[in-house]
Each structure stands twice: as C-alpha cells, then as structure tokens.
Amino acid sequence: MNQRKLVLGIGVAVAILALSLTAFAALHVALVPTSATLDIAGPTTSKTFDAFCSFTPCNITWVIVLSNANVGSIDNTSGPQTTFTVGTVPGTAYIFASDGNGHMAQAKVDVQ
After folding, report:
1. Residues 17-66: pLDDT tens digits?
2. Cα atoms found within 13 Å of the Cα of residue 67, Cβ hemisphere only
3. DSSP 44-75
C-alpha cells in the first residue's frame, strides 16, 4: 500500500511540474527597462529599450503614445531595440513592443 502512495505522489508532482513549465513557456514579449524618468534639461535625455521574445522569430514593431506631441520620439519602429529621446515639453510616453501576433509589452517614460 505504501508503494502505491509513493507512485501516486510522484505522478501528481510530475503533472504539477509539467503544468508549471507549460505556463512559463507561453509566448510573450518582454521589454527592458519597463520605466524611465528623463529630464528635458538633461543630463540624460534619451533611453534605449530592448525587447525580447520567448520564441523565434521575434519580429518586434515599436509604437509610441504621447501625452503631448512634443514629449519625445523613438528612433526605430522595428527591430529588437529603440531609443526614446525627450522632446521640448514635460509629459508621459508609453512605448509598446509588439510581435504582430497579439503579444506585447509596454514601458512608461516620464519626462520632467
């Protein structure tokens, strides 16, 4: 009887581990860093963002949403990296990295 309990226990542990690994292996996009604070007057007026996928190929498209048209801009709209450069007014920018298949990540930039 004790031997069956051990087998059942190992089987349950293996099933839980398999489900956990499947959840971590889900397709997703990650963005680093996830936030930044920059000053119009410097000393740092730009920040580079990197996107990573948990799958290949990883074709990233970048989109920026600004609280004001002059908060800043990004230098690339595709590829694994983009750089945000501050504009002339304070505000907030949201930078989105998308793989085009419904997976995306975002970063928030506060410009002071």
Report:
1. 343 334 444 668 999 999 999 999 989 999 999 998 887 778 899 999 99
2. 13
3. --EEEEEEEESSSS---EEEEEESSTTSEEES
Q: Are strands 91-98 and 104-111 parallel, antiparallel or unpaired?
A: antiparallel
Residue 86 CB partners (closer than 8 Å, separation 6+): 38, 39, 40, 45, 46, 71, 72, 111
Instruction: Take residue 62 and report the two structure tokens written for it.
Output: 């970048």
CA–CA gap between residue 91 and residue 70 (Å, rounded)? 9
Calculate the alpha carbon distances from 66 to 26, 58, 93 in Å: 30, 25, 5
CA distance 90 to 70: 8
Contacts of 61 (CB under 8 A, 6+ apart): 77, 78, 97, 98, 99, 100
pTM for this entry: 0.74
Q: Are 48 and 32 a contacting pair, CB within 8 Å? A: no
